[in-house]
Amino acid sequence: MDLKNKEYIDKIRSLAKEKNAVIFAHYYTRPEIQECADFIGDSLALAQQATRVDADILVMCGVHFMGETMKILCPQKKVLIPDMKAGCSLADSCKAEDLNELIKNEKLKIKNSDACQELIVVSYVNTSAEVKALTDVVVTSSNAKKIVDQLPKDAKIIFGPDHNLGSYINSVTGRNMILWNGACHVHSRFSLEALLELKAANPGVEVLAHPECKAPILAQSDVIGSTKALLEHTIRSSAKRFIIATESGILFEMQRACPDKEFIPVPPEVTEGVGCSCNECEYMRMNTLEKLYNCLLNESPEMHVDKEIAEKAISSIQRMLEMS
Ligand code: CIZ
Ligand code: SF4
Q1: CA 165 from centroid of its chain's CA atoms
Q2: For atom 1 of ligand 2, which residue has the closest CA?
Q3: What residues does 123 pair with on adjacent strands?
């Protein structure tokens, strides 16, 4: 079937109505996917929204860990994701067995030092269910500072997997968390040189950056925050132009919310022959209207999370909800 976007959207909407399905899309997905969705948001807002809707089927257009988080929070519902292969380089950079090894080593160090120190594992939401099951408290970029601030001052904290976000949280909380060395390939490839050129060409224009960006990019930014925080800033601000350093899918929602404002994306470093030379996440872009239509039609692929893992993972997510 080779349909135009509008035809696909109409067909998907009527299929969703017929099947009592609700469609969720992350801010980083293609514009047409966002246009087709019932709810657009960051991963946490979407998963929370999913617990409130009265639907038989939830379709999560995003990446694998987002579908998992939704399934963990809504175990009774059928959760579909248009492409099971839509992964996340950041989540992939932290394997549960490697994190478990680090936890064991750090516990041993505490034991050998005879200190009566508590070890707390804090994980960014961009992690697998297995990693969340080893975690004490999950955080997102919206609530990481607030949650880390509440942890006991003398506790030893492991933070993973995003090293850039962890360094940023260390700098704003004064903590010295042990950082996992993971990164998002999209956020870590923004070009400092291009950003400096954009700043010089657009004097006085604010730079808005996601904390998954590298420290030199953050050092040049005026506002650092989650996708939701950056979006809200553009809506609230009286400024008319902004330089944006995060995945470019968010520009669609920014432009829709502020049609009279201009958003200038920071380009990535040019790395010859490696991956995508744009500031788009290729995993997010794997969600197409065709796959969304087929997944709703066939009710497949369906997300499943091992019951035991889900039970452990949900407590670290619930702790986040209590603390944020
Ligand atoms: O939590 C999310 O949705 C991500 C990946 C980014 C953000 O800042 O909202
Ligand atoms: Fe993962 Fe980065 Fe893509 Fe977000 S933009 S889903 S962190 S790879």
Answers
A1: 12
A2: 88
A3: 138, 160
57: Cα within 13 Å, side-chain hemisphere: 22
Residue nearest to atom 1 of ligand 1 (CA): 43
DSSP 152-183: -TT-EEEEESBHHHHHHHHHHHT---EE--B-
Nearest Cα residue to 204 out of 242, 162, 237, 174 = 242
Question: How many Å lie between the centroid of ligand 2 and the Cα of residue 60?
Answer: 15
pLDDT in the model for residue 308 = 97
The Å distance, Cα 47 to ligand 1 centre, comes to 12
Residues touching ligand 1 (Cβ under 6 Å) are 26, 42-44, 125-126, 140-141, 210, 226-228
Q: What domains can you pick out in the chain, each with its CATH number?
A: 3-87+284-305 (3.40.50.10800), 91-183 (3.40.50.10800), 187-265 (3.40.50.10800)
Asked whether the whole model's pTM tops 0.90, one would answer yes
User: For residue 47, what pLDDT band results from cuts at 50, 70 and 90?
Assistant: confident
Question: What are the percentages of helix, strand and coil residues in the chain, rounded to 5?
Answer: 45, 15, 35
Query: Could you read off the pLDDT of 135-144 as tens digits, one per residue?
Result: 999 999 999 9
Q: What is the pLDDT of residue 231?
A: 98
